[in-house]
Amino acid sequence: MTTNSVQEYWHQEVVNYWKMLGNKIKPETIRNVMDMKAHLGSFAAALKDKDVWTMNVVPENGPNTLKIIYDRGLLGTVHNWYGSYLYKGIIFLKVIITAISV
After folding, report:
1. Element (H, E) at 10
2. How far apart are CA 28 and CA 60, in angstroms?
3. pLDDT of res. 95
4. What CATH fold (topology level) applies to the domain 3-101?
5. Alpha-carbon distance 20 to 81, whole Å?
6. Per-domain residue ranges for the chain?
7. Which residues are CB-contacts of 70 (< 8 A; sequence separation ≥ 6)?
8. What pTM was estimated for this model as a whole?
9. Which DSSP symbol is given to 80?
10. Angle at 31 between CA 26 and CA 33, to 5 degrees
11. What is the Rg, in whole angstroms, of the alpha carbon atoms belonging to the chain?
12. What is the spatial distance between Cα 85 and Cα 82, in angstroms, rounded to a whole number?
């Protein structure tokens, strides 16, 4: 996949996600987003017009693309505890979705 096609993919995912949630997303309900396998930061770039702050996490055991993320003007970090954090992230995402649907 080219960088442009990845960017377009994530842009469409964000559009679909916002449409799916419809009126459940109110101002200041989603403020912090973490992309836990950021690669090039395309998900964060697709969120640039939304009122959210995105942290890009690059797994230590994969390609180090953090310089590319920084070059795009995005925030990011590298973590070596990616596997355990992914599980915690799934639980956290479930809590967020439950809170939005209430």
Report:
1. helix 3-21
2. 32
3. 52
4. Rossmann fold (3.40.50)
5. 32
6. 3-101
7. 76
8. 0.67
9. S
10. 125
11. 14
12. 5
